Amino acid sequence: MNIYLKYMWEALTHPKMSFNYASWYLFSKTRLIDFVASLTNSDRSLINSYLSQIVSSKFESDIRQILEKKSSFGWLTFHHGRLLYLLTRFVSPSTIVETGVFSGISSAYILRALRDNSRGTLYSIDLPDPWLEKHGLSVGFVVPLELKNRWKLILGRSSKMLRPLLSSLGEIDLFFHDSEHNYENMMFEFKCAWPHIRQHGILLADDIEKNSSFRDFCKELNLTAFEIKNAVSRYAAVIKT
Question: Could you give the CA distance from residue 95 to residue 108 in angstroms, rounded to a whole number?
Fold first, then answer.
């Protein structure tokens, strides 16, 4: 089906979700491109080209089909997936660590970017989720099989698993926090990950509006943060100089 006809059909069948999707894409596309350009010093036209490709890709269409009957996951998760895809493409990391997986949408976009870069491994930490298990699903269930060769999933709490993982890796290129959003856990992850991030590497966090941990972390180390807000949460990143 033509991509525009497809979106028209989705708008008719899911009007509320489609309105949220269209509103975010139309009004935040420029902010997303600016955010990635500021972090990676990349050409905006090339960022826009990559964004257009992923939005219309079979990869994203396949994930949408998996989730289409699971409305509790929402459409807004695609937006941060695209952000992670773009950052991964332009940072071209060898090693990424993320905390928090759940359905695996973020992981899938990162892994797709690693495949498109032809390099890199993603290490993900998350707890087994009772809600997913209740519905016969496992952590990261949307991650396509063909992308899992670059994925190392570690089940457990980041408070126990993150430090040993980082010690074994030594140096990483990008750290992404999206696990428990309480002050203690967020501050622990930021302080634990920061010494292992290479020069010019990136620390990225979701839901920084939940508490002051990210702001306090940046203030303590005198770091300059870049922020972007979507319809439901706020992301922020710092570059290690």
Answer: 15
Q: What is the pLDDT of residues 202-216, one digit of tens each?
A: 999 999 999 999 999
- Specify the DSSP class assigned to residue 126: E
Angstrom distance (rounded) from CA 169 to CA 155: 17
Domain 3-239: assigned CATH number: 3.40.50.150
Domain boundaries, the chain: 3-239
Is the dihedral angle over the CA atoms 202, 206, 208, 209 positive or is it negative?
A: positive
Q: Pick from 203, 133, 142: which is nearest to 174 by CA?
A: 203
φ, ψ dihedrals at 152, nearest 5° = -120, 105
- CA dist 79 and 230 (Å) reads 8
Strand ranges (E), the chain: 95-99, 121-126, 151-155, 172-177, 197-205, 226-229, 234-239
pLDDT tens, residue by residue, 83-126: 999 999 999 999 999 999 999 999 999 999 999 999 999 999 99
DSSP letter assigned to residue 225: P
Three-state DSSP class for 223?
Answer: coil
pLDDT, position 132: 87
